[in-house]
Structure formats: C-alpha cells, structure tokens
Amino acid sequence: MGDMFNAIEEEPDQVVNYFKEMIPQYAADVIYEMYTDNAVDILAYAKAKDLNQYLELLPAEAAVEIRGMLHYQDKTAGAIMSTEYVAITGNQTVRSALHVMKKEALDAETIYYIYVIDDEENLQGVLTLRDLLTNDDDALISDIMNRPVMSVDVQEDQEEVAQTIRDYNFIALPVTNPEGKMIGIINVDDIIDVIDEESAQDYSGLAGVDVDNLPGNPWQAALKRLPWSLGLLILGITTAVVISWYQTLIQKDTLMVTFIAMVMGASGNAGTQSLAVSATRIADKDDEEESTAKMVANEALTGLIVGFFSGILFAVITGIWQQDLDFGLILGLALLIAVTISNVLGCLLPIIFKKLGKDASNVPGALVSTISDLLSALIYFGTIQIFWNLYH
Amino acid sequence: MGDMFNAIEEEPDQVVNYFKEMIPQYAADVIYEMYTDNAVDILAYAKAKDLNQYLELLPAEAAVEIRGMLHYQDKTAGAIMSTEYVAITGNQTVRSALHVMKKEALDAETIYYIYVIDDEENLQGVLTLRDLLTNDDDALISDIMNRPVMSVDVQEDQEEVAQTIRDYNFIALPVTNPEGKMIGIINVDDIIDVIDEESAQDYSGLAGVDVDNLPGNPWQAALKRLPWSLGLLILGITTAVVISWYQTLIQKDTLMVTFIAMVMGASGNAGTQSLAVSATRIADKDDEEESTAKMVANEALTGLIVGFFSGILFAVITGIWQQDLDFGLILGLALLIAVTISNVLGCLLPIIFKKLGKDASNVPGALVSTISDLLSALIYFGTIQIFWNLYH
C-alpha cells in the first residue's frame, strides 16, 4: 500500500483526501510505509487536527522526522529531500560497508550512493555501489571514497538542485544543513517532478493560464481565466483612450485605421518573442548583473533589424495597395519604431519582475502584447500625425 | 578524456568540431572511451568522410555498434539508448551474478539494474543490485528475478519513453527490438535531456521563437525571427482587407475605432489561453479519439462564460464612457462572440496540427492571435453594422 502511494500520480491535495477516508491507524500505517519525502508532500495538505492524529499513531521517531520536514519551506531542497539513505564511517572496510548496505537496502530510497560521515555526521565522502564492488573487500573506505562531495544546502531552491543533478548526471545528491551535517538526499525521480513542475510553470506563465492543474469543467476553467481576462480588458482601456485622442486625425482620413491591426500584431509578436528569449536567458544565467544592460541593448538591436525588414515589407505592401509610396514609408517607419520598442518591452518586463523578487518566467505574453498595443497605438497615430502636420 | 566528453554540455554539432581538431586516432580513442549513446549523438553530425575515418580506427566491434545506432531515427528510443548494460542468464546464482557485476562495473553506464536474458537474448527478467545484495549468495537468479519486465521498443518515441520512466520512477529502462531481443537501455539522465528538450520545444512553439538554441548576436537572432515575423505580417494583410471593407461604416462614426484594439486584445488573449490548455490536454491524453469533440465543446463553453462576463464589463465601460448604453451593449455582444470564437480557434488549431501529423504543441500563440485579429475585426465591425442598419 505504501508502495502504491509512493508511485501515485495524483496531486497531493487530492491524495490527502484518501487518507481521510481510511481508519486513522490504517492511514498512519500507509504513511509509515511510504518514503518520508512523499508522505511529507501529502501531509503538507492535511488539516492540523488530522495531521496530529496521524503523527500520534506513528512510531515516535518517524513522527519527529515528518514534523521536522514539514517545516522546510516549499520548493527548497529540504522540502523534496528524503531521509532514507545509507551512511557509513571512513574507518570501515568495503566488506563491512557491503554488510551495512545489505541490511539497509530494504529501507533506503536509493542504495546506489553510500555516504561517508564522521562522528558529528559531517559529510566526508561518497562511494558508489560500483566502487564497493570493484574494490578489494579489505580496502578501507576512507582510502577509496571520492571527495570532495558535491552537496546542496537544505535551503537551496529546488530549481538550483535540479540544475546541479542535470549538469552532473547524478542519480542522487546529498543535502546538508548550514553546519555541514548530512540530513538527507534528493533523488533523480524527485528532480524529474521539479523539472516538470517548473517547465509547466514557464509555459503557463507565457500563456497566462495554469496548464498544470487543468480544471474538469468549463465553469471552473472560465473562473480560473476570468480574473486575468478582465484585468487585461481594464488595462486595455488605456489603448482605447490613446486611440480616442486621435479622433480628429482619424476623421481626416479613415484609411489609416485599416493598418493599425497589422502594426499591433507585428509588435505584439515581436514583444512575445523577445519576452520568451529574455525570460529563458535570465533563467539560464548565473552572473546576471553585468549583462542586463547588454541583453536589453541586444534585444533593441534585434528589434531594429526585424523592424527594419518588416517595415520595408509593410511600406511596399501599403504603398502599392494605396498607390501612395509616401504613405507606405510613413507606415513602415511607424512599424519599425513599434517593433523595436516592443522588443525592448518584452525584455524589460522579466528583468523588472526579477528585480521585484518575482519569477522572470511569470511575465504573461498577454501582458506584453497589451502594453505593446498601447505603445503601438501611440507610435502609429503619433507618426502619422507628425507627417500629416508636415505635409498638409 | 572520454569522461569529459560524456559530461560535456555543448551542442553535439559543436563538439564534433573538437574531434576534427584532434589527430584522427586520438579522436577515435576518445570516441571509444565514451558511452556509445553519447558518441553516436555527436557522430550523427560528422561528415561521412570523417565518420568513416573514425570508425576504421575503432575496434571492429565498437564500429559495428556505432554504425548500427546511427541508423536509428532521431527522437526514438534507439537514438538515445546506451548499449553498455549488464546482462546475465537465469541459471546463474547471486554469487556469480555479483561476480559478473564486479567485472562489468567499470564499463556499464548503469549497474543498478541487471537484466536477465535467455540464449536468444530475449529479455526474461530484471534484478536490482538491491535484490542481489538482499538475497542469499546461492539463490538462483531465475527464482528471484522480477518479471514481467517493462521495456520499450527501439522505435518508440522518446517522449513516450520519458513518460514511462517518469510514471514508474525508473532509473533505467531496457530497450528491445521488434523480435523481443534486448538491445540497449535508456538511463534516467538521458531522459532528463529529453524532458528539457521537449519542454523547451513547447515553450518555443507557443512563443514562436526557438529558445533552446539562443543565437549569440542580434543579427543571428533577427535572422531567426524574421521569416516568422514577415509571414505573420503578410497573414495580417487579411485583417487590413477586412477593416478596409468597413471604411464607409467607420466614416459614419470614427468613435467605433477607439475600442477595436480592446476586442482584438481580449480575443487574442482568450485564444492563447485556449491554445495552451488544448495543446497540453492533447499531449497528456492517451485516448484522444472519443473526446476531441468534447474538448472543442468545453472550450466553446468556457469562451462563452469568459466572453459573457468580459462583455458585460466592456458594455459597462464603453456605455458609461460614451454615455450610450445601447452602443455599450452592441460592443459587449461583439466581444462575447469574438472571445467565444477565438477560444474555439485556439482549441481547433492544435487538433488540426495533430491531424496533419505535426506536433500539437507547435502551434504558435502569434498564429492564433493573428487569425483571431482577423475574425475579431469581422465580428466587431459586422456586429456594429447589423445594429447600425437596424436603428438608422
């Protein structure tokens, strides 16, 4: 039963309801059989009353451990680590280490790595089962262990942990507390969950809708999308205000309205591309300070180039269609400016989010395109007005 | 050197250039030291002449294996599998299996699983090192092995393989050919690469720009974005044509232009949300046939609900602003229709992509919003025209 719950794919806040349906003692037994990290994930959603009941029914040691882990902050190494690992001391031999392995093999979540600790539980070295199997039975652990050992702090962000496991192809990674004591391990299967979660978040962020927890019916779906949809609609009033400023200009020649959607579309598209690229760069980057200015400059330049060629195409299309090359060139210039500004916007928003302590990947594409619409309206009618005044 | 190249983070098409800079025999030595799957990834980018030179300098057996794997299709199990694994037969004892392990431990990419094969190399069962360590040394492998063994076909899509490893928390998964012979294993670290690749693709698809291979300078970046930007600009001409149809209507009261951007923005946003949700549903779903119609119906209903409340808000805003409730109600109705249609559009496009044999996650958000702009223009001015004709 514990095994089944270890592998269960449902959301923890659902699974905790299954526990409620069980006799408490049975639920406690299942929890005890589960790996601690999985049990903690689920118990984080239990009501305080239920939680206390389960913990009282658990063996004291297990209860203390779960209580401790429930205090680790969400999305840190501590929250996803497991406390079932194999640890030995450096003065043991390979033979005695293999003996420990055999004894603990049934409980530990992974037995591929064996960690070497000293009397204060400080992490000293690591061995793989491969090392044990390929060394002489009488070899001393401290002579054959690998060191230094890469480890993560218990408060490390889970995304950083995922990156380390990914970069080094580890199957598990030890977790230490700030004093350097080993207190758990993070396994690669927990990291796959983190990667899935983070990538669903990035995708959801860009789309402006949570795709990780899809609701069952259209009412729930609509309720989840409404706040965001209504918010953007209200923000869109600013664009309506800008267009209303140019009523007199538009009345002089309503033809100019024909092409506003193309300029807004091209700018919105450029802004979204710039957003996706910038958010990815920020997420990938370790030393961000020196190159933020460079990133903005690069996106501005990319926008200028894309805007230049888009502007030429736009000028040719509108010029030929309207048999008026001057008009085409004015529109092309407006597009060039609008695309460049939107490119900078798409790059600035994730930088601003990051400065505010938010996740740079959480800037929705629709926020960029709504602000881009506003700026495009200003730039489009503004450019036409300037040239109108020059020539009429 | 082989270890360094196994862990190298650069793109294979870059790494192959390092080989070119080496003396061919040295390159062959490095290739020989590498795990076969990693070497094959890189050699897939080598020129035929260089490839043949390396293969001639390799031991015959290794050359045959690499040549064989180069023929597996990209993004299948065969292309990402490794051929370094430990296999034993069922009539061995735990002791002799451990002996085999010790001998092969240095070469195999993972020694956590030991596969049991018969004389025809058909996969019979699997053991973990844990099983070996916790069973008596004299136990017969066929008595203690786990069966049936979950395996994947060599032609299986890598995404399916990733899903299986994820669902069952495996560290490795055996690969069989169509006759059931075991021919390789896929390790969890290779699967993490697949998951990263697929999620970067989904994100890139939605954004309409490749974020997986970020170019170094603005020129390259612009060149990558230009085809897409120009293509959408050309598609946008259709929207301009639609708006030009309504010139006479717009001339009657240019005020209506003020709110077109809000309707296009709200519809585009709704369409993108619907796209992200639908593409995710399609990717997650196994039995798609029965519920495609239901998915479209659900999105239409979600669009109606979001459109209804957005329409009311829009009617109130525009009605109060223009001191004309009738005008507000007409605009609100237009928004309701436009949002609903865009929701259906965002859901239909990934379905159509899938039917055409393309990846449903590759529908760009900007394609949805460009088509949505066109439809919104039609619906917006069309609705106003109908009521104009009714009341004037």
Automatic annotation (TrEMBL), chains A, B:
The keyword Cell membrane applies. It is a multi-pass membrane protein. Keywords: CBS domain, Cell membrane, Magnesium, Membrane, Metal-binding, Transmembrane, Transmembrane helix, Transport. It comes from the Bacteria. One of its GO terms (cellular component) is plasma membrane. Residues 81-144, 145-201 form the CBS domain. Gene3D superfamilies: CBS-domain, MgtE N-terminal domain-like, SLC41 divalent cation transporters, integral membrane domain. GO terms for molecular function: magnesium ion transmembrane transporter activity; metal ion binding. The chain crosses the membrane at residues 226-246, 258-279, 300-321, 327-353, 365-388. It is found in: Cell membrane; Membrane. SMART domains: CBS (SM00116). Homodimer. PANTHER family: MAGNESIUM TRANSPORTER MGTE. Belongs to the SLC41A transporter family. Acts as a magnesium transporter. This is Magnesium transporter MgtE. It comes from Ligilactobacillus equi DPC 6820.
